[in-house]
Amino acid sequence: MLAKRLGVLLLTSALVAPNIVACSTRSGATYTPDEAGTAMEVTRASVLQSRAVVIEGLRSDQAAGWGTAVGATVAGAAAYGLTRADTPLGVAVTIIAAIGGALVGTIAEEQKNKWPGAEYILDQSDGTQKAIVQVLARDETIIPPGQQVAIIHGRKGFYRVVPVK
Predict the structure, then answer these.
(1) Which candidate, 12, 11, 9, 24, places its Cα nearest to that of 113?
(2) Structural domains of the chain sorted by starting position, each given as residue range(s) with its CATH number in brackets
(3) Which of 17, 46, 131, 139 has minimal CB crowding within 10 Å?
(4) What predicted TM-score, i.e. pTM, was given to this entire model?
């Protein structure tokens, strides 16, 4: 009977958190191993406007991760410990607790994924304008308006804005 109850708990956790994916947000000074040693297109521009922003939450292509799985497991196990899930009501309480734990875990994970960033409105050398938001590394400051910059077109559509001296 215990194996059946634990199976219900694990199935619930698996349904709530189907994909566990690591998250990574890169600053303008961070490159992936695939980008090192490759040529990238560069466009010149000047900064029209810049401002501080906060980048937070999960990416649209990122499923819930460890926070969701741990939240579901801990809450489900605690509810199971209290109810023993030996009645239909006990099973329902355990499942609801696991789902609630998953939601709390997801919120905690979203709060963990919070970085300072900068939004740049750029006037490119060909006359078109572009807005780019990027994470700021600890030692980076926001590039001020009027500064000449290079827009580096990285792999997979990732852009970086770097000052030109």
Answers:
(1) 24
(2) 1-25+63-113 (no CATH), 31-55+115-165 (2.40.50.100)
(3) 139
(4) 0.57
